[in-house]
Amino acid sequence: ESDEDNCQMIYQKENYKKTVAPFLYDPETKISTPVNVVVSFVIEDILKIEEIDHVYTLKFSILLEWYDFRLTYYNLKKDTTANALTTPEVEKLWIPFVVFENTEKNEAVMGDSRSEVNIQREGNSTKSSRSLVEEINMYKGLENKIKFEQVYTKTFKCEYQLQLYPFDTQTCNVRMLIRRFEKSKIDLTPNEIFMEGDTVLTQYLVSYWNLEYINRTEKTDGIQLVVVMKRRIMNALLTTYLPSLLILIMVYCTNFFKPFFFEASVTVNLTSLLVLVTLFVNLSGSLPPTSYIKNIDVYLIFCMLVPFFEVLLHTYIDYLRNQEESSEEGDSGNSKKKRLINRHGRTMEVIDEDPDNDEEGKWDCSWTSLILRGVGLSAENKMSKVRPLFVKSVSSTPGKDTDAMAEKEEGRSRQRRMIVCRRFALYGVPLVICFFHGLYWIIGMNHNIALMEEVRDKY
Protein backbone atom coordinates (compact mmCIF):
# COMPACT_ATOMS: atom_id res chain seq x y z
CA GLU A 1 0.00 0.00 0.00
CA SER A 2 1.05 3.58 -0.58
CA ASP A 3 2.06 5.69 2.41
CA GLU A 4 -0.27 8.38 1.14
CA ASP A 5 -3.44 6.30 1.53
CA ASN A 6 -4.30 7.77 4.87
CA CYS A 7 -3.27 11.32 4.04
CA GLN A 8 -5.95 13.95 3.72
CA MET A 9 -6.31 15.75 0.40
CA ILE A 10 -8.20 18.86 1.52
CA TYR A 11 -7.34 21.34 4.22
CA GLN A 12 -10.16 23.58 5.49
CA LYS A 13 -9.92 26.39 7.95
CA GLU A 14 -12.01 26.30 11.07
CA ASN A 15 -14.26 29.12 9.84
CA TYR A 16 -15.09 27.29 6.59
CA LYS A 17 -18.85 27.09 6.04
CA LYS A 18 -20.23 24.65 3.51
CA THR A 19 -23.48 26.61 3.25
CA VAL A 20 -21.76 29.78 1.98
CA ALA A 21 -20.65 30.12 -1.63
CA PRO A 22 -16.92 30.93 -2.18
CA PHE A 23 -17.48 34.37 -3.69
CA LEU A 24 -14.75 37.02 -3.57
CA TYR A 25 -15.22 40.32 -1.81
CA ASP A 26 -13.07 43.41 -2.30
CA PRO A 27 -13.21 45.51 0.88
CA GLU A 28 -11.82 48.57 -0.89
CA THR A 29 -14.41 48.73 -3.68
CA LYS A 30 -16.98 46.82 -1.63
CA ILE A 31 -17.77 44.75 -4.68
CA SER A 32 -18.32 41.02 -4.48
CA THR A 33 -17.38 38.74 -7.33
CA PRO A 34 -19.68 35.70 -7.59
CA VAL A 35 -18.22 32.26 -7.99
CA ASN A 36 -18.47 30.99 -11.54
CA VAL A 37 -19.95 27.49 -11.81
CA VAL A 38 -19.42 25.96 -15.25
CA VAL A 39 -22.11 23.44 -16.18
CA SER A 40 -21.75 20.62 -18.70
CA PHE A 41 -24.43 18.08 -19.59
CA VAL A 42 -24.44 14.53 -20.92
CA ILE A 43 -27.75 13.12 -22.19
CA GLU A 44 -27.54 9.39 -21.66
CA ASP A 45 -31.09 8.41 -22.60
CA ILE A 46 -34.63 9.70 -23.04
CA LEU A 47 -36.46 7.00 -21.14
CA LYS A 48 -40.11 7.98 -21.46
CA ILE A 49 -42.33 10.54 -23.17
CA GLU A 50 -45.82 10.90 -21.70
CA GLU A 51 -47.86 13.36 -23.74
CA ILE A 52 -51.06 12.96 -21.72
CA ASP A 53 -49.31 13.96 -18.47
CA HIS A 54 -47.07 16.55 -20.22
CA VAL A 55 -43.87 15.07 -18.81
CA TYR A 56 -40.80 13.21 -20.03
CA THR A 57 -38.16 11.19 -18.17
CA LEU A 58 -34.48 11.85 -18.81
CA LYS A 59 -31.35 10.01 -17.71
CA PHE A 60 -28.38 12.39 -17.69
CA SER A 61 -25.07 13.27 -16.12
CA ILE A 62 -24.36 16.77 -14.90
CA LEU A 63 -20.82 18.10 -14.50
CA LEU A 64 -20.13 21.18 -12.34
CA GLU A 65 -16.76 22.92 -12.18
CA TRP A 66 -15.71 25.76 -9.88
CA TYR A 67 -12.87 27.15 -7.77
CA ASP A 68 -12.98 27.47 -3.99
CA PHE A 69 -10.31 29.90 -2.79
CA ARG A 70 -10.90 28.91 0.82
CA LEU A 71 -9.46 25.43 0.33
CA THR A 72 -5.91 24.10 0.17
CA TYR A 73 -5.12 20.79 -1.51
CA TYR A 74 -2.38 18.36 -0.60
CA ASN A 75 -0.29 16.27 -2.99
CA LEU A 76 -2.45 16.49 -6.11
CA LYS A 77 -1.70 14.11 -8.97
CA LYS A 78 -1.61 14.95 -12.65
CA ASP A 79 -4.29 12.35 -13.29
CA THR A 80 -7.58 13.88 -12.20
CA THR A 81 -9.14 10.52 -11.40
CA ALA A 82 -6.43 9.94 -8.82
CA ASN A 83 -7.60 13.06 -6.98
CA ALA A 84 -11.01 11.66 -6.11
CA LEU A 85 -12.44 12.79 -2.78
CA THR A 86 -13.96 10.42 -0.27
CA THR A 87 -17.59 10.67 0.82
CA PRO A 88 -16.71 12.30 4.19
CA GLU A 89 -14.62 14.89 2.36
CA VAL A 90 -17.43 15.57 -0.11
CA GLU A 91 -19.88 16.10 2.73
CA LYS A 92 -17.66 18.87 4.12
CA LEU A 93 -17.47 20.76 0.81
CA TRP A 94 -19.66 23.51 -0.52
CA ILE A 95 -21.62 22.07 -3.47
CA PRO A 96 -23.60 24.38 -5.77
CA PHE A 97 -27.30 24.01 -5.01
CA VAL A 98 -28.61 23.92 -8.59
CA VAL A 99 -32.40 23.61 -8.72
CA PHE A 100 -34.20 21.79 -11.53
CA GLU A 101 -37.13 24.16 -11.80
CA ASN A 102 -39.41 22.12 -14.06
CA THR A 103 -39.52 19.06 -11.83
CA GLU A 104 -42.56 18.39 -9.69
CA LYS A 105 -40.81 19.00 -6.35
CA ASN A 106 -38.04 21.37 -7.51
CA GLU A 107 -35.35 18.76 -7.06
CA ALA A 108 -31.74 19.96 -6.84
CA VAL A 109 -28.12 18.89 -7.23
CA MET A 110 -26.69 17.73 -3.91
CA GLY A 111 -23.57 15.84 -2.97
CA ASP A 112 -24.06 12.32 -1.62
CA SER A 113 -22.50 8.87 -1.83
CA ARG A 114 -23.32 8.65 -5.54
CA SER A 115 -21.46 11.85 -6.34
CA GLU A 116 -18.02 11.77 -7.91
CA VAL A 117 -15.84 14.73 -6.91
CA ASN A 118 -12.29 15.20 -8.21
CA ILE A 119 -9.69 17.93 -8.03
CA GLN A 120 -8.07 18.92 -11.30
CA ARG A 121 -4.50 20.07 -10.82
CA GLU A 122 -3.85 23.26 -12.76
CA GLY A 123 -1.67 25.51 -10.59
CA ASN A 124 1.81 25.15 -9.24
CA SER A 125 2.55 23.66 -5.85
CA THR A 126 4.37 25.10 -2.87
CA LYS A 127 6.33 23.18 -0.28
CA SER A 128 4.99 22.81 3.22
CA SER A 129 6.70 24.52 6.12
CA ARG A 130 9.58 22.83 7.89
CA SER A 131 7.53 22.53 11.05
CA LEU A 132 5.60 19.67 9.48
CA VAL A 133 7.06 16.21 9.78
CA GLU A 134 6.05 15.10 6.30
CA GLU A 135 6.86 16.95 3.12
CA ILE A 136 3.63 18.05 1.47
CA ASN A 137 3.00 19.69 -1.90
CA MET A 138 0.34 22.30 -1.32
CA TYR A 139 -1.98 23.70 -4.00
CA LYS A 140 -4.17 26.76 -3.74
CA GLY A 141 -7.92 26.35 -4.16
CA LEU A 142 -8.07 29.47 -6.33
CA GLU A 143 -5.85 27.81 -8.96
CA ASN A 144 -7.14 24.25 -8.95
CA LYS A 145 -10.59 23.28 -10.09
CA ILE A 146 -13.20 21.15 -8.32
CA LYS A 147 -15.12 18.83 -10.64
CA PHE A 148 -18.44 17.41 -9.50
CA GLU A 149 -20.29 14.76 -11.52
CA GLN A 150 -23.40 12.74 -10.83
CA VAL A 151 -25.90 10.67 -12.82
CA TYR A 152 -29.61 11.43 -12.38
CA THR A 153 -32.89 10.04 -13.66
CA LYS A 154 -35.58 12.67 -13.33
CA THR A 155 -39.01 13.45 -14.75
CA PHE A 156 -39.42 16.95 -16.15
CA LYS A 157 -42.47 18.89 -17.25
CA CYS A 158 -42.85 19.64 -20.93
CA GLU A 159 -45.73 21.52 -22.52
CA TYR A 160 -46.45 19.61 -25.71
CA GLN A 161 -47.87 21.81 -28.46
CA LEU A 162 -50.15 19.57 -30.53
CA GLN A 163 -51.82 22.03 -32.88
CA LEU A 164 -49.99 20.51 -35.87
CA TYR A 165 -50.15 16.88 -34.72
CA PRO A 166 -48.86 14.66 -36.33
CA PHE A 167 -46.68 17.20 -38.16
CA ASP A 168 -45.55 18.71 -34.86
CA THR A 169 -42.10 19.34 -33.45
CA GLN A 170 -41.77 19.42 -29.67
CA THR A 171 -39.26 21.48 -27.68
CA CYS A 172 -38.58 20.26 -24.15
CA ASN A 173 -36.06 21.64 -21.69
CA VAL A 174 -34.36 21.20 -18.34
CA ARG A 175 -34.32 24.52 -16.47
CA MET A 176 -31.49 24.94 -13.94
CA LEU A 177 -31.62 27.87 -11.52
CA ILE A 178 -29.89 29.22 -8.45
CA ARG A 179 -31.88 30.04 -5.34
CA ARG A 180 -32.97 33.65 -5.18
CA PHE A 181 -30.78 34.70 -2.24
CA GLU A 182 -27.70 33.16 -3.91
CA LYS A 183 -28.09 34.76 -7.35
CA SER A 184 -25.70 37.55 -6.48
CA LYS A 185 -23.11 35.03 -5.22
CA ILE A 186 -23.22 32.35 -7.96
CA ASP A 187 -23.05 32.54 -11.74
CA LEU A 188 -24.06 29.55 -13.86
CA THR A 189 -22.21 29.29 -17.17
CA PRO A 190 -23.24 26.74 -19.84
CA ASN A 191 -20.30 24.85 -21.27
CA GLU A 192 -20.61 21.60 -23.23
CA ILE A 193 -23.36 19.14 -24.00
CA PHE A 194 -23.02 15.59 -25.26
CA MET A 195 -25.64 13.22 -26.65
CA GLU A 196 -24.77 9.62 -25.82
CA GLY A 197 -28.30 8.21 -26.08
CA ASP A 198 -30.18 7.08 -29.15
CA THR A 199 -31.59 9.94 -31.22
CA VAL A 200 -34.14 7.69 -32.98
CA LEU A 201 -36.96 7.12 -30.50
CA THR A 202 -40.22 5.22 -30.85
CA GLN A 203 -42.32 8.26 -31.69
CA TYR A 204 -39.74 11.02 -32.20
CA LEU A 205 -36.45 11.87 -33.82
CA VAL A 206 -34.16 13.98 -31.60
CA SER A 207 -33.04 16.60 -34.09
CA TYR A 208 -31.38 19.23 -31.89
CA TRP A 209 -29.99 19.71 -28.37
CA ASN A 210 -28.20 22.63 -26.77
CA LEU A 211 -27.17 24.09 -23.40
CA GLU A 212 -27.79 27.82 -23.16
CA TYR A 213 -28.92 30.73 -21.02
CA ILE A 214 -32.63 31.01 -20.35
CA ASN A 215 -32.42 34.76 -20.89
CA ARG A 216 -29.35 35.92 -22.74
CA THR A 217 -29.80 39.50 -21.59
CA GLU A 218 -30.31 38.49 -17.94
CA LYS A 219 -27.90 35.65 -17.24
CA THR A 220 -28.84 35.40 -13.57
CA ASP A 221 -32.13 33.78 -14.66
CA GLY A 222 -30.27 30.51 -15.05
CA ILE A 223 -29.50 28.10 -17.86
CA GLN A 224 -31.47 25.42 -19.67
CA LEU A 225 -30.98 22.28 -21.67
CA VAL A 226 -33.06 22.40 -24.87
CA VAL A 227 -34.07 19.20 -26.67
CA VAL A 228 -35.99 19.45 -29.95
CA MET A 229 -37.87 16.33 -31.06
CA LYS A 230 -39.55 15.84 -34.41
CA ARG A 231 -42.46 13.39 -34.52
CA ARG A 232 -42.20 10.33 -36.72
CA ILE A 233 -45.30 10.32 -38.91
CA MET A 234 -45.24 6.67 -39.97
CA ASN A 235 -47.32 5.54 -36.98
CA ALA A 236 -50.09 8.03 -37.82
CA LEU A 237 -49.96 6.99 -41.47
CA LEU A 238 -50.54 3.33 -40.68
CA THR A 239 -53.06 3.71 -37.86
CA THR A 240 -55.10 6.75 -38.93
CA TYR A 241 -54.59 8.05 -42.46
CA LEU A 242 -54.48 4.73 -44.32
CA PRO A 243 -57.63 3.24 -42.68
CA SER A 244 -59.51 6.51 -43.14
CA LEU A 245 -58.58 6.68 -46.81
CA LEU A 246 -59.70 3.09 -47.39
CA ILE A 247 -63.02 3.81 -45.69
CA LEU A 248 -63.56 6.88 -47.90
CA ILE A 249 -62.94 4.74 -51.00
CA MET A 250 -65.58 2.27 -49.81
CA VAL A 251 -67.99 5.14 -49.20
CA TYR A 252 -67.43 6.45 -52.72
CA CYS A 253 -68.07 2.99 -54.19
CA THR A 254 -71.66 3.12 -52.92
CA ASN A 255 -72.36 5.69 -55.66
CA PHE A 256 -72.14 2.85 -58.20
CA PHE A 257 -74.72 0.65 -56.48
CA LYS A 258 -77.92 0.01 -58.45
CA PRO A 259 -80.94 2.10 -57.41
CA PHE A 260 -82.77 -0.80 -55.77
CA PHE A 261 -79.73 -1.29 -53.45
CA PHE A 262 -80.57 1.94 -51.66
CA GLU A 263 -80.73 0.23 -48.26
CA ALA A 264 -77.29 -1.33 -48.77
CA SER A 265 -75.81 2.04 -49.74
CA VAL A 266 -77.14 3.69 -46.60
CA THR A 267 -75.95 0.79 -44.45
CA VAL A 268 -72.39 0.98 -45.81
CA ASN A 269 -72.21 4.73 -45.27
CA LEU A 270 -73.58 4.58 -41.73
CA THR A 271 -71.19 1.75 -40.82
CA SER A 272 -68.28 3.75 -42.24
CA LEU A 273 -69.36 6.76 -40.22
CA LEU A 274 -69.48 4.65 -37.07
CA VAL A 275 -65.96 3.29 -37.69
CA LEU A 276 -64.58 6.79 -38.27
CA VAL A 277 -66.21 8.08 -35.09
CA THR A 278 -64.65 5.20 -33.14
CA LEU A 279 -61.26 5.98 -34.67
CA PHE A 280 -61.65 9.65 -33.76
CA VAL A 281 -62.62 8.90 -30.16
CA ASN A 282 -59.75 6.44 -29.65
CA LEU A 283 -57.22 8.89 -31.09
CA SER A 284 -58.53 11.72 -28.90
CA GLY A 285 -58.18 9.47 -25.86
CA SER A 286 -54.52 8.76 -26.64
CA LEU A 287 -53.67 12.48 -26.71
CA PRO A 288 -53.96 15.09 -23.95
CA PRO A 289 -57.26 17.01 -23.98
CA THR A 290 -56.80 20.48 -25.44
CA SER A 291 -58.98 23.52 -25.94
CA TYR A 292 -57.75 23.96 -29.51
CA ILE A 293 -58.41 21.81 -32.58
CA LYS A 294 -55.52 19.65 -33.69
CA ASN A 295 -54.52 19.04 -37.27
CA ILE A 296 -55.59 15.41 -37.07
CA ASP A 297 -59.00 16.50 -35.75
CA VAL A 298 -59.64 18.51 -38.92
CA TYR A 299 -58.79 15.48 -41.05
CA LEU A 300 -61.02 13.04 -39.16
CA ILE A 301 -63.93 15.49 -38.97
CA PHE A 302 -63.75 15.88 -42.75
CA CYS A 303 -63.69 12.10 -43.17
CA MET A 304 -66.78 11.76 -40.96
CA LEU A 305 -68.64 14.41 -42.97
CA VAL A 306 -68.15 12.47 -46.23
CA PRO A 307 -70.35 9.44 -45.36
CA PHE A 308 -72.80 11.75 -43.58
CA PHE A 309 -73.40 13.81 -46.73
CA GLU A 310 -73.39 10.64 -48.82
CA VAL A 311 -76.37 9.38 -46.81
CA LEU A 312 -78.17 12.68 -47.35
CA LEU A 313 -77.32 12.59 -51.04
CA HIS A 314 -78.51 9.00 -51.57
CA THR A 315 -81.69 9.74 -49.61
CA TYR A 316 -82.47 12.80 -51.72
CA ILE A 317 -81.80 10.93 -54.97
CA ASP A 318 -84.08 8.10 -53.86
CA TYR A 319 -86.77 10.62 -52.93
CA LEU A 320 -86.60 12.19 -56.41
CA ARG A 321 -86.68 8.75 -57.99
CA ASN A 322 -89.82 7.76 -56.07
CA GLN A 323 -91.50 11.04 -57.00
CA GLU A 324 -90.69 10.37 -60.65
CA GLU A 325 -92.10 6.85 -60.52
CA SER A 326 -95.28 8.07 -58.83
CA SER A 327 -95.72 10.69 -61.53
CA GLU A 328 -95.22 8.12 -64.30
CA GLU A 329 -97.75 5.77 -62.75
CA GLY A 330 -100.33 8.52 -62.54
CA ASP A 331 -99.86 9.45 -66.20
CA SER A 332 -99.84 5.87 -67.48
CA GLY A 333 -103.09 4.35 -68.74
CA ASN A 334 -101.92 0.79 -68.25
CA SER A 335 -103.65 -1.24 -65.65
CA LYS A 336 -100.39 -3.00 -64.83
CA LYS A 337 -97.11 -1.32 -63.99
CA LYS A 338 -93.91 -3.30 -63.43
CA ARG A 339 -90.96 -2.14 -61.34
CA LEU A 340 -87.94 -3.81 -59.76
CA ILE A 341 -87.20 -3.88 -56.05
CA ASN A 342 -84.59 -5.54 -53.86
CA ARG A 343 -85.92 -8.24 -51.57
CA HIS A 344 -83.27 -9.82 -49.31
CA GLY A 345 -80.60 -9.35 -51.97
CA ARG A 346 -82.70 -10.74 -54.84
CA THR A 347 -84.17 -8.81 -57.74
CA MET A 348 -87.98 -8.97 -57.71
CA GLU A 349 -90.67 -7.55 -59.99
CA VAL A 350 -93.54 -5.60 -58.51
CA ILE A 351 -96.74 -5.53 -60.62
CA ASP A 352 -99.34 -2.98 -59.65
CA GLU A 353 -102.79 -3.96 -60.94
CA ASP A 354 -105.90 -1.82 -61.05
CA PRO A 355 -108.79 -3.60 -59.32
CA ASP A 356 -111.26 -1.61 -61.47
CA ASN A 357 -110.19 -3.83 -64.40
CA ASP A 358 -110.98 -7.00 -62.45
CA GLU A 359 -113.52 -9.23 -64.11
CA GLU A 360 -115.78 -9.03 -61.09
CA GLY A 361 -115.58 -5.21 -61.10
CA LYS A 362 -115.36 -5.03 -57.36
CA TRP A 363 -113.08 -2.93 -55.13
CA ASP A 364 -110.80 -5.13 -53.01
CA CYS A 365 -110.27 -3.26 -49.75
CA SER A 366 -107.75 -5.83 -48.53
CA TRP A 367 -104.99 -4.39 -50.76
CA THR A 368 -103.67 -7.88 -51.54
CA SER A 369 -102.86 -7.49 -55.23
CA LEU A 370 -99.05 -7.25 -54.98
CA ILE A 371 -97.63 -9.99 -57.18
CA LEU A 372 -93.94 -10.69 -56.49
CA ARG A 373 -92.29 -12.79 -59.11
CA GLY A 374 -88.71 -13.78 -58.36
CA VAL A 375 -86.46 -13.63 -61.36
CA GLY A 376 -85.62 -17.19 -62.36
CA LEU A 377 -88.18 -18.81 -60.01
CA SER A 378 -90.16 -21.79 -61.34
CA ALA A 379 -93.94 -21.79 -61.30
CA GLU A 380 -94.00 -24.98 -59.23
CA ASN A 381 -92.23 -23.24 -56.31
CA LYS A 382 -95.33 -22.24 -54.45
CA MET A 383 -93.40 -21.10 -51.40
CA SER A 384 -91.97 -18.15 -53.36
CA LYS A 385 -95.38 -16.99 -54.54
CA VAL A 386 -96.98 -14.07 -52.78
CA ARG A 387 -100.67 -13.35 -52.86
CA PRO A 388 -101.27 -10.42 -55.21
CA LEU A 389 -102.16 -7.07 -53.72
CA PHE A 390 -104.42 -5.02 -55.97
CA VAL A 391 -103.59 -1.37 -55.87
CA LYS A 392 -106.16 0.99 -57.21
CA SER A 393 -104.58 3.12 -59.88
CA VAL A 394 -105.85 6.63 -59.98
CA SER A 395 -106.94 7.51 -63.46
CA SER A 396 -105.94 10.91 -64.62
CA THR A 397 -108.85 13.22 -64.78
CA PRO A 398 -109.01 15.75 -67.55
CA GLY A 399 -107.71 19.07 -66.37
CA LYS A 400 -106.53 22.30 -67.67
CA ASP A 401 -103.53 22.54 -69.95
CA THR A 402 -101.76 24.68 -67.39
CA ASP A 403 -101.89 21.88 -64.81
CA ALA A 404 -100.45 19.41 -67.28
CA MET A 405 -97.69 21.80 -68.25
CA ALA A 406 -96.89 22.45 -64.59
CA GLU A 407 -96.66 18.73 -63.92
CA LYS A 408 -94.33 18.26 -66.90
CA GLU A 409 -92.15 21.15 -65.80
CA GLU A 410 -91.98 19.71 -62.30
CA GLY A 411 -91.00 16.35 -63.75
CA ARG A 412 -88.23 17.93 -65.83
CA SER A 413 -87.03 19.81 -62.73
CA ARG A 414 -86.86 16.57 -60.78
CA GLN A 415 -84.88 14.95 -63.56
CA ARG A 416 -82.42 17.87 -63.66
CA ARG A 417 -81.92 17.73 -59.90
CA MET A 418 -81.45 13.99 -60.02
CA ILE A 419 -78.85 14.35 -62.79
CA VAL A 420 -77.00 17.05 -60.85
CA CYS A 421 -76.97 14.94 -57.70
CA ARG A 422 -75.76 11.87 -59.55
CA ARG A 423 -72.98 13.81 -61.25
CA PHE A 424 -71.91 15.39 -57.99
CA ALA A 425 -71.85 11.97 -56.34
CA LEU A 426 -69.76 10.50 -59.16
CA TYR A 427 -67.43 13.41 -59.91
CA GLY A 428 -67.82 16.10 -57.23
CA VAL A 429 -67.25 13.89 -54.18
CA PRO A 430 -63.89 12.44 -55.36
CA LEU A 431 -62.74 15.89 -56.46
CA VAL A 432 -63.53 17.33 -53.03
CA ILE A 433 -61.74 14.42 -51.30
CA CYS A 434 -58.65 14.72 -53.50
CA PHE A 435 -58.53 18.51 -53.13
CA PHE A 436 -58.80 18.32 -49.36
CA HIS A 437 -56.09 15.65 -49.06
CA GLY A 438 -53.71 17.58 -51.28
CA LEU A 439 -54.28 20.84 -49.42
CA TYR A 440 -54.03 19.09 -46.04
CA TRP A 441 -50.70 17.43 -46.73
CA ILE A 442 -49.17 20.50 -48.38
CA ILE A 443 -50.06 22.74 -45.43
CA GLY A 444 -48.94 20.13 -42.89
CA MET A 445 -45.55 19.51 -44.49
CA ASN A 446 -44.93 23.23 -45.05
CA HIS A 447 -45.67 23.95 -41.38
CA ASN A 448 -43.34 21.17 -40.34
CA ILE A 449 -40.48 22.49 -42.50
CA ALA A 450 -41.08 26.07 -41.36
CA LEU A 451 -41.05 25.00 -37.71
CA MET A 452 -37.74 23.16 -38.11
CA GLU A 453 -36.19 26.22 -39.77
CA GLU A 454 -37.46 28.40 -36.94
CA VAL A 455 -35.86 26.08 -34.41
CA ARG A 456 -32.52 26.18 -36.25
CA ASP A 457 -32.61 29.97 -36.45
CA LYS A 458 -33.54 30.33 -32.78
CA TYR A 459 -31.03 27.94 -31.31
Structural key phrases:
disordered N terminus, single chain, 4-stranded antiparallel β-sheet, rod-shaped, alpha+beta, 459 residues
Write the layout of secondary structure elements.
Elements: E1 10-12, E2 24-26, E3 31-33, E4 35-50, E5 55-66, E6 71-74, H1 87-92, E7 98-100, E8 116-120, E9 126-127, E10 137-140, E11 145-157, E12 169-178, E13 186-195, E14 204-213, E15 223-231, H2 234-253, H3 262-286, H4 295-331, E16 336-343, E17 346-353, E18 371-374, H5 401-458
Helix pairs in contact: 2-3, 2-4, 3-4, 4-5
Q: Over all CA atoms, what is the radius of gyration?
A: 42 Å
Number of helices: 5
**Largest beta sheet: what is the strand line-up?**
8-11-5-4-13
- Overall body shape: rod-shaped
- Overall mean pLDDT stands at 82
